């Protein structure tokens, strides 16, 4: 078992339990909830008719039996596609009910929010805006409106937020901060940059989201970010030695394709 620092490290299922089930499907998120994940990560994109759907790539080609850009397709087009079978080509043994279209259809963010609301326990959501700049604010507008409908655009009566918004785009986070100032924002970082030397983040960003490679290559980074008052959420942490490193450094959240294994390594499985 990894010797974690005393504080609780949140385990976030990246695209759901995406090692065991096809990413961004209901099957993957249900599996993550069963596995005991503290939070779920998902990427969101806008369809041509303005629906937020959980898809990582710009195109649906890799993760479905269809072709084309999400932004050029309507939700009804996406609903005809199978987002599960591709996974079976890599790993046929662990996919639960992958032939069940209800579990492997395109997942709207709205359906994911319903799943979380119906789960019966506290599960946080880390929602990443993908390529938001091309939409000139529409992604953030739709996102905040949807969160508002679910009562998630403001903290609960206990003052807690169960949803946070992540992005590689500082502009996207700035828009979120303006529209929903109490929703936590996570600035995703893949590469080192000069302003990180003193742990600073762009305006509108509250939490730091460095990639694991950056954390490995910059041993003092987590401390600097903590000293500057930011939580540190690291992605995508799948290897036991990286989980060990994150625990040693005292990160606040580990984003992983393997929530069950990480929970077990942290002594919570
Ligand atoms: O959680 C952040 C991480 O998901 C960013 O990378 O490409 O997997 O969306 P990507
Ligand atoms: Ca992501």
From TrEMBL:
- What species does this protein belong to? Streptomyces clavuligerus
Listed EC numbers: 3.1.4.46
List the PANTHER family. GLYCEROPHOSPHODIESTER PHOSPHODIESTERASE 1-RELATED, GLYCEROPHOSPHORYL DIESTER PHOSPHODIESTERASE
GO annotations under biological process?
A: lipid metabolic process
Q: Which residues form the signal peptide?
A: none
* Name the UniProt record assigns to this protein: Glycerophosphoryl diester phosphodiesterase
Gene Ontology terms, MF aspect: glycerophosphodiester phosphodiesterase activity
Keywords of this entry: Hydrolase
| Any single Pfam family the record assigns to this protein | GDPD
Q: Does the keyword Hydrolase apply?
A: yes
**Hydrolase recorded as keyword:** yes
Q: Enzyme class, one word?
A: hydrolase
